[in-house]
Amino acid sequence: MNMNVWTIETPGGREQLSLEKREAPTPKEGELLIEVKAAGINRTDTLTRQNTQLKAPYPVLGVEVSGVVVKNESNSSAFKIGTRVAGLVNQGGYAEYAVMPADRAIIIPESLSYVEAAAVPEVFLTAYQTLYWLGELKNNEKVLIHAAGSGVGTAAIQLARQLSDATIFATAGHADKLEMSRQLGADVLTNYKERAFDKDVASHTEGTGVDVILDFVGASYWDMNLASCAVDARWVLIGTLGGSQIKSLSIGDLMMKRIALKGTVLTPRSDDYKARLTREFSEKALPLFNEGKLKPIIYSVIPFSELPEAHRQMEENENTGKIILSLEK
Amino acid sequence: MNMNVWTIETPGGREQLSLEKREAPTPKEGELLIEVKAAGINRTDTLTRQNTQLKAPYPVLGVEVSGVVVKNESNSSAFKIGTRVAGLVNQGGYAEYAVMPADRAIIIPESLSYVEAAAVPEVFLTAYQTLYWLGELKNNEKVLIHAAGSGVGTAAIQLARQLSDATIFATAGHADKLEMSRQLGADVLTNYKERAFDKDVASHTEGTGVDVILDFVGASYWDMNLASCAVDARWVLIGTLGGSQIKSLSIGDLMMKRIALKGTVLTPRSDDYKARLTREFSEKALPLFNEGKLKPIIYSVIPFSELPEAHRQMEENENTGKIILSLEK
Fold first, then answer.
1. CATH 3.40.50.720 occupies which residues in chain B?
2. What residues of A are in contact with residue B245 (Cβ under 8 Å)?
3. Do B248 and A244 touch (CB under 8 A)?
4. Is A292's Cβ below 8 Å from some Cβ in B?
5. Which residues of A touch B246 (CB under 8 A)?
6. What are phi and psi of A132, to 5 degrees?
7. How many angstroms separate the CA of residue B215 from the nearest CA in chain A?
8. Chain A residues with CB inside 8 Å of B262's CB?
């Protein structure tokens, strides 16, 4: 069976993206074959496109899809043919068919469309993992979420509000992103172009600081993040939008505040890790989509044939929320 | 009831240590009154002695004792009068009587003397906490223990060997400390005056690194520790013998290896934390002392009247293992 896929001519810019015909994949034991209805665009896709380490034949890009089960080679009866699922795949997402380990598939809540469902896995699983598995956020604690208008940021604000009744500090650089943060549940908003966020944290915590930081920024926020940490804070390093190189670090500061500084990336984690994360997320958070308490945030829906435009939006940082590629006719 | 205690004339050197008479303390609800038989010397004691922030009346020094229960104001029947106990106290340890929260008392294993028991709480609780609560050491993982001849180092090697069958990398600067490490269960020994430990870690792990580092050294080992971290390593910052200031740090390195860097100090932790730690240690590790699988490492036993000599040994770093003050007649 042939299908249309997006791959590359050779590693490079958007002009290298190539729509081709390939043989549809065959699911192995434990996997599902999915007819793809929508695919999420992720930063890792644009990085893979440019990765000069890759050798031909080049992979089909894309790590996040929603669609319908057309073949079930797992021993789970939850994934009958026709079941609507979404989840992370190991490449091969920008295609009419994709294979996915069954233990990484999320059954799509009734209230969500395929386009909405494709906007859930990467940002909500990353937000859940960083807030709870790494950040160990407990009920009624205080959390500082940077890049509050990003996909993971908007998901994290919703989870911290709905699952933990946290006090949420959010930073962003535009009034509309801050307004969205407020609507999603953030309590204290800082426009970083106007004010230093550590002052807002100090004044709203009587100087005691926050218990968890989701840090997408890195170097440029280092000293303010350190100043914002409470004793026993968990500071999760997810991104380096503000640079990676710290010019000095005092171990004594980390010791006296007993700070846990945790670096993380999700994509290279093991299949088992992703399966356990998917299972816990499905139990604890997924039902809240049907109740309307959690919602995917979508910036744009782009037809499958216009992938280069989707990559352009991501690379020019136009989006607040997810960019979704639609394969629905 | 009067008792002899060690306090200070004024903050300063060993010449300020002062043997005085004070009223014996009265245990509050939940506390034990202990007739002290032996007291451990700790770095925090010499630091308290020099702390110019302190105001008179100055405290009785000492945070670690063994002895016999003479009064039980807790509602636990485990601490009958005459019970042999050891544990951490909030100051007041260098004295003939001391009060201790009952939930922080360890019942002394039959096979240990009072002097041996006074050598257990601080180093073994710290080693247990850093290896298991912070380091999350799992069975058969690899652990790198610096300052292997120190009190906490010798305790950590024994725990990692007996509780986790870990592969243990130990560093120290003297052949006799390395030989003791080997006898206690370390697998790969590095004399840091002769070789770079990261080379030994790499060659014995096929370049994959260790899962846990207990880091008492800090700045001077920073790059070698980073190089020695496996993916998903837990790197516990306990001391800064080699300096506190790191000149540069790449957040990207912490992210790509998914390193958790955790600063810690035990003394200022909450009473509840210390009680939970004591309980778990008593269940999981304490029985191994009677089986001869764990043993306190003692460097010297000094009579109560000669405390300044005990502080001299600690401040001149003479000791391998604990310095114990004995009050037994």
1. 123-263
2. 248-251
3. no
4. no
5. 246, 248-251
6. -105, -50
7. 11
8. 254, 258-261
3 state DSSP class of A177: helix
What is the complex's ipTM, to 2 decimals? 0.85
Q: Do B263 and A253 touch (CB under 8 A)?
A: yes
Looking up tokens 């043919």, which residue turns up? A81
Min Cα–Cα distance to chain A from B229, Å: 12
B232 touches chain A (CB under 8 A): no
Q: Which pair of tokens denotes residue B220?
A: 């001077």
Tell the residue number behind the tokens 């240590």, with chain if given. B17
Per-residue pLDDT of chain A (329 residues; tens, 9 = 90+): 899 999 999 999 999 999 999 999 999 999 999 999 999 999 899 999 999 999 999 999 999 999 999 999 999 999 999 999 999 999 999 999 999 999 999 999 999 999 999 999 999 999 999 999 999 999 999 999 999 988 899 999 999 999 999 999 999 999 999 999 999 999 999 999 999 999 999 999 999 999 999 999 999 999 999 999 999 999 999 998 889 999 889 999 999 999 999 999 877 888 899 999 999 999 999 999 999 999 999 999 999 999 999 999 999 988 888 999 999 97
Question: What CATH topology corresponds to B2-120+271-326?
Answer: Quinone Oxidoreductase; Chain A, domain 1 (3.90.180)
Q: Residue B289 in contact with residue B111, Cβ under 8 Å? A: yes
The answer to whether A227 faces chain B, any CB pair under 8 Å, is: no
For an interface test with A, which of B231, B251, B273 has the most A Cβ atoms less than 10 Å from its Cβ? B251
CATH 3.90.180.10 in chain B is located at 2-120+271-326
Structurally, at CATH architecture level, domain A2-120+270-326 sits in Alpha-Beta Complex (3.90)
Instruction: Quickly name the fold that domain B123-263 has.
Output: Rossmann fold (3.40.50)
3-state secondary structure of A110: coil
Measured between alpha carbons, how far is B246 from B222 in angstroms, rounded to an integer?
7
Per-residue tokens: B218: 């800090």
Flag if A258 and B245 touch (Cβ within 8 Å): no
Q: Which of B218, B251, B262 sits opposite A244 (nearest CB)?
A: B251
Indicate the residue of A134, A258, A262 with minimum beta-carbon distance to B264: A258
**Chain B closest-CA separation from residue A232 CA (Å):** 9
Extended strands (E) in chain B: 2-8, 17-23, 31-40, 64-72, 84-88, 97-101, 105-107, 142-145, 167-172, 188-191, 210-215, 229-237, 245-246, 249-250, 260-263, 298-303, 322-326
